[in-house]
Write a structure and sequence with these properties.
The complex is a heterodimer. By secondary structure, chain A is mostly helical. Chain A contains 13 helices and 2 strands; from the N terminus they run ααααααααααααββα. Helices cover about 70% and strands about 0% of the residues of chain A. In chain A, helix 2 crosses helix 11 and helix 8 packs across helix 10. Classes of the chains: A mainly alpha, B mainly alpha.
Chain lengths: ~325, ~375
């Protein structure tokens, strides 16, 4: 019984830690499926986190904060689109520029506006997305096994965790079941064909990066006004890159990417619990190894040692109507 | 679309990069104005802080040294058509090499005997860390951008592990190695100048600046005067043409990445053997990423990289002074400038080409009409 309590609590934090990864991975999926490399997930999320915390601190409304996060993140995404789609710039360079810009601007503006060394004022519990308790959870908590799963694991998260989980089937539906999704995938594989069919490659790709901006904004708001209580310098802490790794690990597909996010979230949740714990056979596992594991696994996957991750064919190459 | 003229070479090589840099700095000025400070005053403080007194100059050149190494690293990879974002991790691992050899031999050898060994160790370790992404790109088809990003994080985790569990000075609380024996560290520049009877203020600036300048010469000779350099430029320019001229592109990708990594590894000569005299946590502190801005701004040419490194060195040093003069600006502004330089000189590099071509067409047509 002790073990199952431990496990449920670990899975509970897995969900909490995986939520921003899931949102960012879905963001990356839209962008990369349309042929635009997005290493700027990190920067868009960070900018969103700052915008959410700043707006909420000033107005006291989480909803305005959420809106600000989405708008700012979409603006960053449009900048990425302007560089890569309109001006056919290098997509990796542009993404990197966005990450560095976000890391700098959030602190510069934070210091100028709030004078707290780059942090935003800490938010009260009314100024954050609080836990949503599902009906009957009090009453069901005494039921063995299923009770704790319902009350601890499923119920009691904030709204954005559920939004993140909903984002996966939504993404899958948009990308695989709608006309827009069909064209989106086509433009990532063979933009010439899409262009020949009389559909604008640029407009399709712009819509894809806007979707990416929207989802990264949600992830940012999650960090600063749901999980945390305010913005802290560099609070995204590489999560955008882990999400990118998860997207590749999931081979650019929504549900496999979700499982990769949950796996990486689980590793992070377990890493802190494993500190100093002696395991049978292997002994103590180092925190650093657990932290590096998502990256190591992704490298091994990319190298083709566990399955093959094949990227969208036209990814990374700017589209030009002229024959080059 | 209006008629366009082909740009003359000087506009392509000189004017467009200059306009892009100016756009980046103008945007940074807008940011400063937005937070209610005067951009002109900020520029004055920056310049005074970076060049106004000899201690400032020392720090400026000390930062410059790091950026030359990482800028060259990024540039060599760029020439081969590869984007090495892993300079940060390669420099960090290079520090492990430099640190290990210095700590192993520091009571046996003076600095001048240790320096060549440390350069070899730093570049070998840096090259090894770049070898894996290079190999995976060439032979396993995984993209070098993604693997180098992953390798930055893996390097960081590995170094934390080693510093906390293995290399830590016994009895010490902070995760860093013991100090390298004083007679084996690279002389600081004020000691070097005192030898000639010239007195300058003590700063972390050390002899590695000369190593950096030599590295520039090395890269210039390598890229433009050797077979390897020709092959590197060839695979960057047109890989299938390279195959027809008898170049093995896979092998060259690995070699280019290893040279790139070894240059990044030399950052440790400045930081570990010179300035900090030990291996500490996160001693690279972003120089690997600044190298990307430096290479883009310096157009991958050693001369351009020296100029761009000096500019960023000045920004980092002058930026530290901003916090004293303004209540609302700190050195983080330099990070914004770095991002803007990467944006305008890298991602938006072609933005001004179209308008300029039209402008040149207009000018040449009107001058023809006058005749």
């Amino acid at each position: 019984m002790e073990f199952s309590v431990q496990l449920i609590s670990a899975l509970d934090s897995t969900l909490r830690l995986a939520a921003p990864l899931i949102l960012c991975a879905m963001a990356g999926l839209f962008s990369e499926r349309s042929g635009i490399v997005d290493i700027g997930l990190e920067g868009k999320m960070l900018a969103g986190a700052f915008a959410a915390a700043a707006m909420t601190a000033v107005t006291g409304s989480v909803w305005l904060g959420l809106l600000a996060a989405i708008l700012v993140s979409i603006m960053m995404a449009l900048l990425h689109g302007f560089a890569c789609i309109t001006h056919r710039g290098d997509q990796v360079v542009s993404g990197l520029a966005i990450n560095i810009l976000a890391a700098g601007l959030t602190v510069v503006l934070g210091i100028a506006w709030f004078r707290r060394g780059g942090q935003t004022p800490s938010l009260t519990s009314e100024e954050r997305f609080g836990p949503l308790t599902w009906p009957l959870s009090e009453w069901l908590s005494d039921v063995p096994l299923l009770g704790p799963i319902y009350t601890e694991l499923l119920s009691g998260h904030n709204l954005l965790v559920y939004v993140a989980l909903m984002a996966v089937p939504m993404t899958a539906w948009i990308v695989f079941k709608t006309r827009f999704g069909l064209r989106l995938r086509a433009v990532g594989e063979n933009p010439q064909a899409v262009d020949t069919a009389g559909i604008s490659v640029a407009w399709l790709r712009y819509r894809a990066v806007i979707m990416a901006g929207l989802l990264c904004g949600l992830a940012g708001a999650y960090l600063s006004i749901a999980l945390g209580a305010g913005f802290i310098k560099d609070m995204s802490a590489g999560k955008g890159y882990i999400a990118l790794a998860a997207l590749i690990f999931g081979k650019w597909r929504p549900f496999p990417a979700l499982f990769a996010c949950l796996l990486f979230g689980f590793l992070e949740a377990v890493a802190t619990r494993m500190q100093g714990v002696q395991l049978p056979v292997v002994g103590e596992i180092d925190v650093q190894l657990m932290q590096a594991l998502p990256y190591i696994l992704t490298v091994i996957l990319l190298a083709g040692f566990i399955g093959r991750a094949i990227a969208p064919k036209a990814i990374g190459t700017p589209y030009s109507k002229d024959r080059a | 679309m209006s008629r366009r003229a082909k740009l003359p070479a000087w506009a392509d090589i000189g004017l467009i990069p200059l306009i892009n840099v100016l756009l980046a700095f103008l945007s940074a000025g807008v940011v400063v104005a937005l937070i209610g400070e005067s951009p002109l005053e900020a520029v004055q403080v920056l310049i005074r802080g970076a060049f106004g007194y000899d201690e400032g100059v020392g720090y400026t050149l000390y930062y410059t040294t790091n950026f030359i190494f990482t800028g060259l690293a990024v540039a060599v990879a760029f020439h081969a058509g590869l984007f090495n974002i892993g300079g940060e991790g390669q420099a960090y691992i290079g520090g492990l090499g430099v640190g290990l050899i210095c700590l192993a031999l520091d009571h046996l050898l003076p600095w001048w005997a240790l320096l060549p060994l440390a350069i070899i160790a730093g570049s070998l370790f840096g090259a090894a860390w770049a070898f894996i992404p290079g190999y995976l790109q060439a032979y396993r088809g995984s993209h070098v951008v993604i693997t180098t990003i992953m390798f930055n994080f893996i390097a960081s985790a590995l170094m934390v592990y080693l510093l906390v569990n293995v290399l830590i000075q016994p009895g010490s609380m902070s995760p860093e190695t013991r100090a390298i024996a004083p007679e084996s560290t690279l002389p600081l520049m004020h000691e070097f100048f005192a030898f000639f009877g010239i007195k300058i203020t003590q700063t972390p600036l050390n002899l590695s600046l000369f190593v950096a300048l030599l590295a520039c010469l090395f890269v210039w000779v390598l890229i433009w005067k050797t077979r390897w350099g020709y092959a590197i430029r060839m695979i960057g320019f047109n890989e299938s043409a390279a195959v027809y001229s008898g170049i093995n592109p896979k092998r060259m990708v690995v070699i280019a990445m290893m040279i790139s990594g070894s240059l990044a590894g030399l950052v440790a000569i400045n930081e570990v053997m010179g300035a900090q005299e030990r291996v500490g946590l996160d001693f690279v502190s972003g120089a690997g990423f600044t190298g990307i801005a430096v290479a883009l701004m310096g157009r991958n040419h050693p001369l351009g990289i020296i100029i761009a490194s000096l500019l960023f060195g000045a920004l980092f040093q002058g930026g530290a002074e901003l916090a004293f003069e303004f209540s609302t600006i700190t050195r983080d502004l330099v990070v914004v400038i770095q991002g803007l330089v990467i944006l305008f000189c890298g991602a938006l590099a072609y933005m001004m080409r179209g308008p300029l071509e039209r402008l040149f067409a207009l000018v040449s047509r009107s001058s023809q009409e006058e005749r």
